[in-house]
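Why does residue order matter? Because the sequence determines the fold. Keep that principle in mind as you read this record.
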Amino acid sequence: MQASRDHLILSEDPEDRQILNRLAQAQRKQHGNLVGTGVRVGKERIYRGDRVRLGETSSTYGIVKGTFGEVRHIDPVTKVAAIRLDSGKHKLANLRHYKGMELGYCILETQAREVETRYAYVLSRGLYGRQGAALQLSRAKVETHLNTYQLEREEEAMVELARKMSREKHRDFARVVEREGLERE
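Structure:
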Protein backbone atom coordinates (compact mmCIF):
# COMPACT_ATOMS: atom_id res chain seq x y z
CA MET A 1 0.00 0.00 0.00
CA GLN A 2 1.28 3.45 -0.89
CA ALA A 3 1.44 6.21 1.71
CA SER A 4 -1.05 9.07 1.48
CA ARG A 5 1.92 11.46 1.27
CA ASP A 6 2.71 9.95 -2.15
CA HIS A 7 -0.59 11.24 -3.55
CA LEU A 8 -1.85 14.80 -3.92
CA ILE A 9 -4.95 16.30 -5.50
CA LEU A 10 -4.68 19.82 -6.98
CA SER A 11 -7.67 22.05 -7.58
CA GLU A 12 -8.17 25.61 -8.80
CA ASP A 13 -11.31 26.24 -6.77
CA PRO A 14 -11.54 26.48 -2.94
CA GLU A 15 -15.00 24.87 -2.86
CA ASP A 16 -13.79 21.94 -4.97
CA ARG A 17 -10.78 21.63 -2.68
CA GLN A 18 -13.02 21.34 0.36
CA ILE A 19 -15.25 18.72 -1.31
CA LEU A 20 -12.30 16.67 -2.58
CA ASN A 21 -10.64 16.74 0.85
CA ARG A 22 -13.81 15.43 2.46
CA LEU A 23 -14.25 12.74 -0.18
CA ALA A 24 -10.65 11.56 0.24
CA GLN A 25 -11.07 11.54 4.01
CA ALA A 26 -14.32 9.54 3.74
CA GLN A 27 -12.60 7.01 1.48
CA ARG A 28 -9.72 6.57 3.94
CA LYS A 29 -12.18 6.25 6.81
CA GLN A 30 -14.17 3.62 4.92
CA HIS A 31 -10.96 1.61 4.40
CA GLY A 32 -10.11 1.78 8.11
CA ASN A 33 -7.17 4.19 7.78
CA LEU A 34 -8.68 6.77 10.15
CA VAL A 35 -9.23 6.00 13.82
CA GLY A 36 -11.22 7.54 16.67
CA THR A 37 -13.95 10.13 16.94
CA GLY A 38 -11.92 13.01 15.59
CA VAL A 39 -11.63 16.61 16.70
CA ARG A 40 -13.28 19.60 15.08
CA VAL A 41 -10.78 22.11 13.71
CA GLY A 42 -12.52 25.01 12.00
CA LYS A 43 -15.08 23.49 9.60
CA GLU A 44 -13.32 20.12 9.44
CA ARG A 45 -13.11 17.07 11.67
CA ILE A 46 -9.58 15.66 11.93
CA TYR A 47 -8.93 11.99 12.81
CA ARG A 48 -5.88 9.96 13.76
CA GLY A 49 -4.36 8.90 10.43
CA ASP A 50 -5.52 11.97 8.48
CA ARG A 51 -3.22 13.68 6.00
CA VAL A 52 -2.97 17.33 7.06
CA ARG A 53 -1.49 20.59 5.85
CA LEU A 54 -0.34 23.10 8.44
CA GLY A 55 -1.47 26.44 7.07
CA GLU A 56 0.04 28.80 9.67
CA THR A 57 3.53 29.32 10.97
CA SER A 58 3.80 28.96 14.74
CA SER A 59 7.01 29.56 16.67
CA THR A 60 5.27 28.16 19.76
CA TYR A 61 4.83 24.75 18.13
CA GLY A 62 7.78 24.92 15.72
CA ILE A 63 5.49 24.70 12.69
CA VAL A 64 6.21 26.24 9.31
CA LYS A 65 3.33 27.24 7.03
CA GLY A 66 2.71 24.82 4.17
CA THR A 67 4.14 21.75 5.94
CA PHE A 68 2.41 18.41 5.40
CA GLY A 69 2.13 15.50 7.78
CA GLU A 70 0.01 12.74 9.25
CA VAL A 71 -1.87 12.90 12.53
CA ARG A 72 -0.41 10.11 14.67
CA HIS A 73 -2.50 10.84 17.77
CA ILE A 74 -5.25 13.26 18.64
CA ASP A 75 -6.86 13.63 22.05
CA PRO A 76 -10.55 14.61 21.84
CA VAL A 77 -10.54 16.07 25.37
CA THR A 78 -7.37 18.18 25.37
CA LYS A 79 -7.36 18.67 21.57
CA VAL A 80 -3.61 18.02 21.47
CA ALA A 81 -2.44 16.48 18.20
CA ALA A 82 0.80 14.63 17.56
CA ILE A 83 1.81 15.08 13.93
CA ARG A 84 4.52 13.23 12.02
CA LEU A 85 5.72 15.67 9.37
CA ASP A 86 6.79 14.46 5.93
CA SER A 87 10.34 15.43 6.92
CA GLY A 88 10.18 12.74 9.65
CA LYS A 89 10.05 15.24 12.52
CA HIS A 90 7.31 15.00 15.14
CA LYS A 91 5.35 18.02 16.39
CA LEU A 92 2.71 18.53 19.06
CA ALA A 93 0.04 21.18 18.65
CA ASN A 94 -2.83 22.18 20.88
CA LEU A 95 -5.69 22.65 18.41
CA ARG A 96 -7.48 24.98 20.82
CA HIS A 97 -4.73 27.51 20.05
CA TYR A 98 -3.30 26.39 16.71
CA LYS A 99 -6.04 26.92 14.12
CA GLY A 100 -3.93 26.37 10.99
CA MET A 101 -4.46 22.63 10.60
CA GLU A 102 -6.52 21.55 7.60
CA LEU A 103 -7.02 18.40 5.57
CA GLY A 104 -4.12 17.92 3.18
CA TYR A 105 -5.35 15.47 0.56
CA CYS A 106 -6.24 18.27 -1.87
CA ILE A 107 -4.66 21.71 -2.09
CA LEU A 108 -5.13 24.74 -4.26
CA GLU A 109 -2.76 25.40 -7.11
CA THR A 110 -1.54 28.51 -5.29
CA GLN A 111 -0.48 26.33 -2.32
CA ALA A 112 1.45 23.87 -4.52
CA ARG A 113 4.46 25.95 -5.54
CA GLU A 114 6.92 24.24 -3.17
CA VAL A 115 5.19 20.84 -3.12
CA GLU A 116 6.37 17.67 -4.82
CA THR A 117 4.68 14.25 -4.71
CA ARG A 118 4.92 10.90 -6.46
CA TYR A 119 1.39 10.95 -7.93
CA ALA A 120 -0.67 14.06 -8.68
CA TYR A 121 -4.35 14.28 -9.57
CA VAL A 122 -5.25 17.60 -11.14
CA LEU A 123 -8.80 18.94 -11.47
CA SER A 124 -8.56 21.89 -13.84
CA ARG A 125 -10.61 24.26 -15.95
CA GLY A 126 -7.49 25.86 -17.37
CA LEU A 127 -8.21 29.08 -15.47
CA TYR A 128 -4.58 30.03 -14.93
CA GLY A 129 -3.28 29.53 -18.46
CA ARG A 130 0.17 28.27 -19.35
CA GLN A 131 1.85 29.21 -16.06
CA GLY A 132 -0.86 27.50 -14.03
CA ALA A 133 -0.71 24.39 -16.22
CA ALA A 134 3.06 24.21 -15.86
CA LEU A 135 2.69 24.32 -12.09
CA GLN A 136 -0.17 21.81 -11.98
CA LEU A 137 1.47 19.32 -14.30
CA SER A 138 4.95 19.45 -12.74
CA ARG A 139 4.19 18.48 -9.13
CA ALA A 140 4.47 14.70 -9.61
CA LYS A 141 7.71 12.72 -9.83
CA VAL A 142 6.07 9.58 -11.25
CA GLU A 143 2.64 10.27 -12.76
CA THR A 144 0.06 13.04 -13.20
CA HIS A 145 -3.62 12.45 -13.91
CA LEU A 146 -5.37 15.44 -15.51
CA ASN A 147 -9.13 15.79 -15.11
CA THR A 148 -11.60 18.43 -16.19
CA TYR A 149 -15.22 19.15 -15.26
CA GLN A 150 -16.85 18.19 -18.56
CA LEU A 151 -18.28 14.67 -18.36
CA GLU A 152 -19.91 14.63 -21.78
CA ARG A 153 -17.92 14.97 -25.00
CA GLU A 154 -14.73 14.09 -23.13
CA GLU A 155 -12.45 14.44 -26.16
CA GLU A 156 -13.74 17.94 -26.97
CA ALA A 157 -13.43 18.93 -23.31
CA MET A 158 -9.78 17.85 -23.19
CA VAL A 159 -9.00 19.77 -26.41
CA GLU A 160 -10.65 22.89 -24.92
CA LEU A 161 -8.72 22.42 -21.68
CA ALA A 162 -5.44 22.09 -23.62
CA ARG A 163 -6.27 25.31 -25.52
CA LYS A 164 -6.91 27.20 -22.26
CA MET A 165 -3.80 25.80 -20.62
CA SER A 166 -1.60 26.86 -23.53
CA ARG A 167 -2.57 30.55 -23.28
CA GLU A 168 -0.44 33.09 -21.54
CA LYS A 169 -2.72 34.55 -18.88
CA HIS A 170 -1.04 37.98 -18.72
CA ARG A 171 -1.56 38.47 -22.48
CA ASP A 172 -5.27 37.70 -22.11
CA PHE A 173 -5.47 40.21 -19.24
CA ALA A 174 -3.68 42.84 -21.36
CA ARG A 175 -6.21 42.33 -24.16
CA VAL A 176 -9.13 42.83 -21.75
CA VAL A 177 -7.57 46.03 -20.35
CA GLU A 178 -6.87 47.32 -23.88
CA ARG A 179 -10.43 46.52 -25.02
CA GLU A 180 -11.96 48.27 -21.98
CA GLY A 181 -9.75 51.32 -22.61
CA LEU A 182 -10.94 51.54 -26.24
CA GLU A 183 -14.58 51.20 -25.20
CA ARG A 184 -14.27 54.14 -22.77
CA GLU A 185 -12.90 56.52 -25.41
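The chain is about 30% helix and 35% strand.
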